[in-house]
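Memo to structure team: turn this sequence into structure tokens by end of day. - J.P.
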Amino acid sequence: MRKTTKTTRVAAARKMVKREVGLVPRKAAGGYLPYESPELPGLLSLGFQHVLTMFPATVLVAILTGFDVGVTLFASGLATVVALLGSGMRIPMYYGSSFSYIAAVSAVVAAQWGGVRVAQVGIMATAFVSVLAGLVIKKVGKKALDKVLPPIITGSVAIVIGIALAKAALDMASAQWTVALVSLVATIMFSVYMQGRGLLGMMPVLLGAFVGYLVALSQGMVDFGPVREAAWFSIPKFSWPAFESPDAWKAVLAIAPIAIATIPESTAHLYQMSIYIDNLADRIKKPRLEIKKLIGLNLILDGVGDFINGMLGGAAGTNYGENNSLMAITRNYSGRVLVTAGLIAMGLGFIGKLAAIVGTLPVAVTGGLAVYLFGVIGLQGAALMIEEKVNLFDPRQLAIGAVILTVGIGGAAFAGGSIPAFGIEWPSIATAALLGILLNMVFIIFPKKS
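Reply from structure team:
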């Protein structure tokens, strides 16, 4: 009897340890930390919610830049899985196509000397920039990064990314305002009144999209023709970057600098997630994870994601603020859920009918969701500055933030999101981030005398 009791206790202890590192699924207790995992039904449904969240933007970027949708979906899923495994499941991020690259990549694809394969070389160069930045940060430490990219820059860039996309959200919503408003209101109601109520409480975006989809269906807005015509199985049109092109260097110069925008963007996303994850850890009385200390690794993984996109023929990407917003709303930061989302996205790249079904989601429904999600991205930037106690009474902080917000948001109003100045088209988000960084460096080199 003693032996049985002892064996039982040992087994129970082992199970508890496994549960703590996420090897055993558990029921939600206010949310999931990165190393935790819901049971299989929740794993699949929450993973699909992430796919639904990333799908519109990822596919839209592929369409606008002329890249293959199937390849872009597959590459985004693979990049996400590799990044999660590369971080030891510590950094819960989804890696999708970035709006920051649309203007530069589209220009290269449309150029007589360019094309998708030439643009892939430029995307490979952004991978080099991100990895190099990550390695430097790992060497010199986070404090050095905070001097170059203080919270006023990362927070302001996050606000710009969210608010600058507001027009895109409203453009999508304007396809059918009633459906968009129903989707928006339903999503907000689910996120507010269902929070903390088990699995359903963690799927407000999926539920809101479902309600909007039903309304759109009742109005004859859903076309199932593409689903009937799509093949069950189709191999994505993978392509090899044109390293041999004599004009490849032009693509590098046009596209690689955009990484300047995605570095503070990625940094802001990580800091935001760190705040929300640690808040959840406090609520459920678990140790804080402080993933913000992994900024170097995070940038390296960003670079790995772009390397995957560049090699396979997927649109250039970054970790997604929309999915970060979803996690902040649902308090579900499970790494395994994101791996599941990545695997589903990879499957979408091969299963023609499945991709077609998801593609039947009306633009108006997507617009309603985007109004909420893009706004949350912006507010997370404000939350970051509040958490880091940014002193907005300091004229230096005010100057940096003001320039980033004005250039980033104002520049997005120009055609293609690029500011025409000095005979050059300047990508608004990248330009705003660069100006903020340069202005901050001026203040560091020439400090204010007390």
